[in-house]
Amino acid sequence: MKKLVLKRMVLLFLILGLIGCQKPASLIGLLRGNVAPNFQLENLEGKLVNLWDFRGKVVFLNFWTTWCPPCRMEMPEMEIIYQDYRAKGLEILAVNLREDREIVKAFMDLGGFSFPVLLDFEVRVGKDYQIFSLPTTFLLDYEGKIKEVFIGYQPWTDLKYRQMIENLLIKK
């Protein structure tokens, strides 16, 4: 009886060990190093945009609203970063949460902002990305993996952030 129990325990540990050693090719989730969850949203022109279509670029994924003062503060700096680095492979996707297309378009036009805006009318993507504070920004590498997450206003034109973006733009 003891030998049978011992054999079953050994077999169970072997099976659990084998299962635990298997790793999926890429993990999808919100932790650093994971592939960012894919989504599809409309841009200001009504065209559907898919996040994973931007693989091969560094993606600056920003969640924001027009009524959020810190969001409004960082928009001019995001435009500078976009102009400085888009030719080198940086793409900014600014995901607006729950606002009307006309309000967002007027805000972007008034500010002279040229980076793409995606509209998350129902905050479906915001929920998937667990957005609880605005602004929130995810920096994704060429493979779509999350490298950094920032909650709240960031001075994107400061040297620290520029170096971080430049390091991501270097293909390894």
Count of individual helical segments: 5
Give the % helix: 25-40%
Number of domains: 1
| Classification by helices and strands | alpha/beta
Q: Care to count the β-strands?
A: 7
The CATH superfamily title: Glutaredoxin
Describe the structure.
With 172 residues, the protein is α/β, with parallel strands linked by helices. The protein has a single domain (28-169), classed as 3-Layer(aba) Sandwich (Glutaredoxin), CATH 3.40.30.10. The chain is built from five helices and seven strands. Helix 2 links the parallel strand 3 (58-64) and strand 4 (90-97). Residues 9-25 have low confidence and may be disordered.
Summary?
This protein has helices spanning 2-21, 69-85, 101-111, 124-128, 159-169, and strands spanning 40-43, 48-50, 58-64, 90-97, 117-120, 136-140, 146-151. It is of the alpha/beta class and 172 residues long.
Provide keyphrases for this structure:
Glutaredoxin; 37% helix; 5 helices; alpha/beta; seven-stranded mixed β-sheet; globular
Question: Helices and strands in order, then pairings?
Answer:
Layout: H1 2-21, E1 40-43, E2 48-50, E3 58-64, H2 69-85, E4 90-97, H3 101-111, E5 117-120, H4 124-128, E6 136-140, E7 146-151, H5 159-169
Parallel strand pairs: 3-4, 4-5
Antiparallel strand pairs: 1-2, 1-5, 3-6, 6-7
